[in-house]
């Protein structure tokens, strides 16, 4: 079976780096917020091109603490998309903020500048922009400057886009702050949960550094409300520091696989994604559009190819929110949720496996 992600091969490829990273932490005996977290934070901030990185427990906490760090509190309205797996909405709900859902463009699956303008006009206190599926949002610079003019902080969610660039600038460097996840299957992932906020704003960085550790200003002295315990693990930080130098080549390999899919998948019912052959695209997920999705998925499974749906239920249609959001319709988001299907696309795939996926799709008799 060709899996949707294969962590066994991923770790086998990097076994020596990972073993060394773990050994270093064990030898030192410093396991929480120690030198490895500091090193990784400095390296990752430098990589993104910002002044600060604050290592956290996971990517959802990163969104929550970025929002809190920017002053979002209970009752505030925050703009987000409804097609990105509920992570941002979960973060908002933890604060008691309420989501203002923006519909997306059909091709890109991203929020548009027009939607951002509407959200700000509607009184949103912050805007979260998700670089979904590994594609940098093309208008991110215009969105960021519009929000900046209106004094509404823009947060980039970069959990699917580590290393993607727009006009030579890394995603994560456009907004007032940005969140990353280092969940194992992400473009940069560890051996467990991990996340970070990056920002060039000293005050925001300082607040988030406190919010991640009980609201302490110094040991056992609590000064800040809305805090939690969410620290990047010393082991994960050590591993991520070892893996960061491979991110560029891994992204290039992902892009190569996506380009091959798009050049070779021919089926009247299958619409490949708009693959970009530039560094604005890091191919986190290769998502096609197809009418009889379940039929194709079953066919692929029969041929030994896994396929997934990212994501089957838009946020505003989740059982948790369905009553509260019953008056909301997001036509494109809802249609995409019915028609998208994700094919395996990750750097450890062999050329032969990529060929097998293409053959499996093309041989579908619908
Ligand atoms: C994975 C992901 C997150 C959440 O990250 P966790 O580390 O799993 O909490 C947030 N946003 C997007 C778009 C993601 O893909």
TrEMBL record:
<feature type="modified residue" description="N6-(pyridoxal phosphate)lysine">
    <location>
        <position position="186"/>
    </location>
</feature>
<dbReference type="InterPro" id="IPR015421">
    <property type="entry name" value="PyrdxlP-dep_Trfase_major"/>
</dbReference>
<dbReference type="InterPro" id="IPR015422">
    <property type="entry name" value="PyrdxlP-dep_Trfase_small"/>
</dbReference>
<dbReference type="InterPro" id="IPR015424">
    <property type="entry name" value="PyrdxlP-dep_Trfase"/>
</dbReference>
<keyword id="KW-0663">Pyridoxal phosphate</keyword>
<dbReference type="Pfam" id="PF01041">
    <property type="entry name" value="DegT_DnrJ_EryC1"/>
</dbReference>
<dbReference type="GO" id="GO:0030170">
    <property type="term" value="F:pyridoxal phosphate binding"/>
</dbReference>
<feature type="active site" description="Proton acceptor">
    <location>
        <position position="186"/>
    </location>
</feature>
<comment type="similarity">
    <text>Belongs to the DegT/DnrJ/EryC1 family.</text>
</comment>
<dbReference type="GO" id="GO:0008483">
    <property type="term" value="F:transaminase activity"/>
</dbReference>
<dbReference type="InterPro" id="IPR000653">
    <property type="entry name" value="DegT/StrS_aminotransferase"/>
</dbReference>
<dbReference type="GO" id="GO:0000271">
    <property type="term" value="P:polysaccharide biosynthetic process"/>
</dbReference>
<protein>
    <submittedName>
        <fullName>dTDP-4-amino-4,6-dideoxygalactose transaminase</fullName>
    </submittedName>
</protein>
